[in-house]
C-alpha cells in the first residue's frame, strides 16, 4: 500500500504517521524532515532550502522532488510508502506519479486531514521537538514527563524556527494557494479519503486504521 498524507500545517500528519507506520508496515517519508536533516548537515541543498523553510515558503519543486525521488528509489522495496508533506503543488503531484510509475508502485490512497485555523495555531505554537530523537510533543496535548526534556533521549526540547504564529499564517496562505488544489487532483483519480484532523489523535487513529485495513484487503 502506497499513500500520501495531505493537510494544512499542524493537521497532525507527522503525529498520525508515527502511530500508523509500524502497524501497517509502511515507510514514513516526510519532506519536511528530509529538508531539516539537510539543513542540519549544512549541505548545499540544505543551505538553499533554509531561507524558504524559515519564511514559511515552499522550497522550489525541482529541489524537493529530487530529494524525494532519491529517498523513494533507495528505500526498502518491501514496505509501502507513507508520504507526508509531499506533494505540495500540482507539479509535485505529477512528478510523484512519474516516480512511482517508474518503480511500479502507484499510489493507492490520498488521505486528506483537514483542520481549522484555531486548532492549527494552537498546535503549532505549542509544538516542541527533540532534535536528536525526532520525538514531537505539545505543551498541552502531549507534554513530556519533565517540562522541556525529551522522555526518550533526555535532551532539551526546542521550538522549530518556523513554528511562530506569523510564519504559520504564511504557511497557511501558501497551503491554501498551492496545496489545497491537489486535493481535487486526487479526488478526480478516485483515491481521496477525507478525515477530520481537528479530532484528537486517539479518536482519529482507529478511523485511519479502518481505512488502511480496508485498502489493504483490496491490494
Ligand atoms: P513540514 O515539516 O512538512 O511542515 P507542515 O506541513 O507545515 O506540517 P507540520 O510538520 O507543521 O504539521 P503536521 O501536520 O505534521 O503536525 P504534527 O503532527 O507535527 O514542512 C516544513 C517546511 O518545509 C514547509 O513550510 C516548506 O518550506 C518545506 N517543505 C516541506 N515539504 C515541502 C514540499 N513538498 N515542497 C516544498 N517545500 C516543502 O502536529 C503538530 C502539533 O500538534 C504537535 O505538537 C502534536 O503533538 C500536536 N497534535 C497533532 N495532532 C494532534 C491531535 N490529533 N490531537 C492533539 N494534538 C495533536
Walkthrough of the structure:
There is one protein chain. The chain has 9 helices and 7 strands. With 219 residues, the protein is of the alpha/beta class. It has a domain of 150 residues: P-loop containing nucleotide triphosphate hydrolases (Rossmann fold, 3-Layer(aba) Sandwich). Strands 2-3-1-4-7 form a 5-stranded parallel β-sheet, with helices on both faces. It has a two-stranded antiparallel ribbon with strand order 5-6. The longest helix has 18 residues. The structure holds BIS(adenosine)-5'-pentaphosphate (AP5). The site of BIS(adenosine)-5'-pentaphosphate (AP5) has 35 residues, from α1, α2, α3, α6 and β6. BIS(adenosine)-5'-pentaphosphate binds next to α1, α2, α3, α6 and β6.
The average pLDDT score comes to: 94
- What best-fitting shape do the alpha-carbon axes yield? globular
Helix content: 40-55%
The major sheet is characterized as: 5 strands, parallel
Tags for this entry?
219 residues; alpha/beta; Rossmann fold; 5-stranded parallel sheet; 14% strand; binds BIS(adenosine)-5'-pentaphosphate
Give the gist of this structure:
The protein is 49% helix and 14% strand. The protein is an alpha/beta fold and 219 residues long. The strands form two sheets. It has a five-stranded parallel beta sheet with strand order 2-3-1-4-7, with helices on both faces.
Task: Walk me through the topology.
Layout: E1 3-6, H1 13-20, E2 26-30, H2 31-41, H3 44-55, H4 61-73, E3 80-84, H5 90-102, E4 109-114, H6 117-126, E5 127-129, E6 136-138, H7 165-179, H8 181-188, E7 192-196, H9 201-218
Parallel strand pairs: 1-3, 1-4, 2-3, 4-7
Antiparallel strand pairs: 5-6
Helix pairs in contact: 1-9, 2-3, 4-5, 6-7
